[in-house]
Amino acid sequence: MKGIRPNTWHSEELFARAQSVIPGGVNSPVRAFKAVGGTPRFIARAGGSRLWDADGNELIDYIGSWGPMILGHSHPRVQQAIRTALEEGLSYGAPTERELELAELVLKAYPACDLVRFVSSGTEATMSALRLARGYTGRDLIVKFRGNYHGHADSLLVQAGSGLLSAGGGTAKTAPSSAGVPQAFAELTLVADYNDVASLEALFSQRGPDIAAVIFEPVVGNAGVLVPTAAFLMALRDLTRQHGAVLIADEVMTGFRLAPGGGVELLGLEPDLVCWGKIIGGGLPVGAYGGKAEIMGYIAPLGPVYQAGTLSGNPIAMAAGIETLRLLAENPPYAKLEAYGKALQEGLEDILRATGIPATINRVGSMITLFFCPGPVATYAQAVEADTEAFKRFFHGLLERGVYWPPSQFEAAFFSAAHGQAELEVTLQGARAALQ
Ligand code: KE4
User: Fold this and answer.
1) pLDDT value at residue 389
2) pTM metric for this prediction
């Protein structure tokens, strides 16, 4: 596993061509390796815990398509479900049985939700949930948390995490926002600090009657992993209930990953609306939002809040989601994921102790981040203190040794039910060399 620079000629050639036809050569910014430098690997195929890039290099995958691939890539039953659906056509623009099958599976895992609506991405899910909360309450303001990312709808690209943070510009006090979001929109988004109850209380004491919704990541993945405190979770529910605001749990990343009922189950949350994405599509484009009938009844065609989508409930995507959720229900991987995560975290911590490198690991289940700064990292302000140059060296040291970690200090790494002893050994071997 010496760090012999693998051949990346094809990726380099493809990246050069891609940049002449696609902005930055990628269709989502974090993929461009801007935060870590170098040439992004163009992936040719994947199976289980592995990816193979355009030059044939085999990689152990800790991105998993940024969350969907909890079962591992190319699961035979998911692939077969897609093939079967393909035989019946691709898209009809009319209701299908598969949509209600997936809806029933989602609601079975989230019994506090009465209704669910499918869309085609996590962004659409959170954007629609916010519009619904505004329509239901008749209020305009929303509250989000610095460094949380909820997709790229204008109202949510205010002091957001993930790719915005990875691109740099985040400081202890402010996370970056996107150009192109009108000031008038941004002013309707109030920003508090995750795990900082006083910052949330201050917003409600100043603007409580005008706040339509609070949206949060049950466990943050988009600043790197941040773990919520019980006091913070309690304040979220108490303050929104007290002021008549809608509490929206953004489970796009955590849903079906942290437990059968996601962060809601794991943390005992009682949100009014939940957003999903990633895993419920099994790797195909699916998002969803759902909640109590009293609120969901405001959505067209039942009520006055409009939301629509040509490919919402697409039968092929539904088939992939159904099979994925069926597999998760038949053979829950959570104990295995926890065992792998524990061994990975302990192995990395042993290496860090031996090297004396200041670093701390945050992990919940199969979401993990190694922050290059002394712990604890419980807040956004502490996360942005991390040494991104040290992270860069770690990232490339792993990549050269066949381990594909997320290309940003401010992203969660994910592993799947297909990761086992072999992956653990190669990963720790690579980390030992990368952290030397
Ligand atoms: P999509 O629109 O990308 O399907 O979902 C947006 C979204 C919403 N909410 C949460 C909590 C999310 O993590 C995401 C998307 N996550 C990022 C990874 N940090 C997607 C990767 C990317 O942007 O390329």
Assistant:
1) 97
2) 0.98
